[in-house]
Amino acid sequence: MAKSALLKSSIGKKYWMALTGLFLCLFLAGHLAGNLQLIFGTPLQFNEYALFMTTNPAVKLLSYLTYISILFHAVDGILLTIQNKKARPVGYAKNNAAANSGFASRNMAVLGTLILFFIATHMVNFWAKMHFTQLPLQTVSIGEGDQKSELYITSGWGISNSGPYSGKFIPVQAIDGKDIVIEGNGFYTTNPIKVKFAEGYKDLHKITFAFFQDPKTGLIATVGYVLAMIVLGFHLWHGFQSAFQSLGVNSPKLNSTIRFAGKAFAVIVPLLFAIIPIYIHFTK
Asked: What angle do CA 40, 131, 34 make, to 5 degrees?
């Protein structure tokens, strides 16, 4: 039986590394665009984005593709590293690696492992909470003094559609456990039968700000996130242009453009990601 090129061939592994790597670059760009709403958007806009990313069927499909790509990229990278070491079991008598390659290219496996560890912790702190825990729903206060009301913002039917946000509102005091109940982020009537009539926004904006502003762990989390983005930058510095080379793109006209675009991507994207927790931590 012929051995699978996907599993055994180093060329096949490099193709898959390149394809999954470039796909993950697209994911990074899209994820960054959404996360920048933490700086430039309102809490409602960010929570709407979070709800869309967790409920839209097409986005869910892309999410599963992203998870598979991350795992495949990581496993493929480990197999390639092992395969390369086996192909050169005896080290050269004189080896000046720094003169022949850059820091990033020599340490892609280490950088990738650190990034994988960051992804795991990042998903525990945010992704898992968004999907599997009962987060507080976003509310807004309207009015002054005795006329002040605390309202849930929902994407469906509500008591009012006026105020500082474009969403519709349900008074917090209306949730009495008898006629209206909350399950997850859904609002249900229970009299005479149970019917879902509105959907609230899990307040991931509030959770994110609390995470990076925590008096005890906020600074550590911020510094850790920034260091992870530096590691990501080094990984992208070599990986972006290397992916195109693995796919056979080797044109004198394109190489300089790809090299410039790769270095710009490797600097700008991690830098903007790093700015977000720094901004949050020092925002009061």
From this structure: 20
